[in-house]
Amino acid sequence: MNSLKLHDKTFEIFISEKEIQQIVAKIANDINKSKIENPLFIAVMNGAFLFAADVMRQITLANAEISFIKLASYEGTESTGKVNELIGIGEDITGRNVIVLEDIIDTGNTLVKITDLLKNENIKSLKIVTLLHKAEVYDKDIPIDLIGKNIPNDFVVGYGLDYDEIGRNLPHIYKLKNE
Ligand code: IMP
Ligand code: MG
Question: Structurally, how many domains does the chain consist of?
Fold first, then answer.
């Protein structure tokens, strides 16, 4: 079964579980090679929960910590352009080397919101890491340090990514099927 229905739409496999794990291993390895000291990972909920869990298991940097923020901008298959902060940074992160873990960077509106939130926190350094990136849609100046895979402007679900809250549990990443 390569296609599946979520709500009113049909999806087909786009990135297999195996390929996802290869991408994750490469990302974790690149982060480990960076030798960042006492890193504080910040995973962006909900979408990045599986990605963050899989990356963290492979991090060998000493004293690695993880924390979570929760932002939302999507309704259905479209970005609303407005990013809501549902759970903010609840701790003192002054002087920390922050590594943001995102599931996907699309328009970059969420990333702008994240960097705005971090601006006032006097952190020591910031790295942005994303599993997926829609480069053709991204129109912001913020550099993205690590990109797992660049994808076209298709709506995707699975491995943490949702279509109106369902599909996050799927082990593969699926894309909207053109009918
Ligand atoms: P941006 O603010 O447009 O960059 O979008 C960022 C957030 O929207 C991501 O962290 C995802 O949670 C969600 N998002 C963007 N594109 C997709 C998609 O294709 N499928 C599911 N969620 C997406
Ligand atoms: Mg997200």
Answer: 1
Indicate which CATH number applies to the domain containing 43: 3.40.50.2020
Task: Name the catalytic one among 30, 54, 106, 164.
Answer: 106
Is 106 known to be catalytic?
yes
Residues, CB within 5 angstroms of ligand 2 (ion): 44, 47, 103
For residue 46, what are the CA distances in angstroms to 123, 124, 152, 161? Answer: 23, 26, 22, 8
Place of tokens 């996802």: 20
Parent domain of 13? 3-73+80-176
Name the band, by pLDDT with cuts 50, 70 and 90, for residue 55.
very high
pLDDT digits (tens, 9 = 90+) for 154-174: 999 999 999 999 999 999 999
**E strand segments, 7-64:** 9-15, 39-45
Among 161, 163, 164, 166, say which to mutate for ligand 1: greatest number of ligand atoms within 8 Å of CB: 161
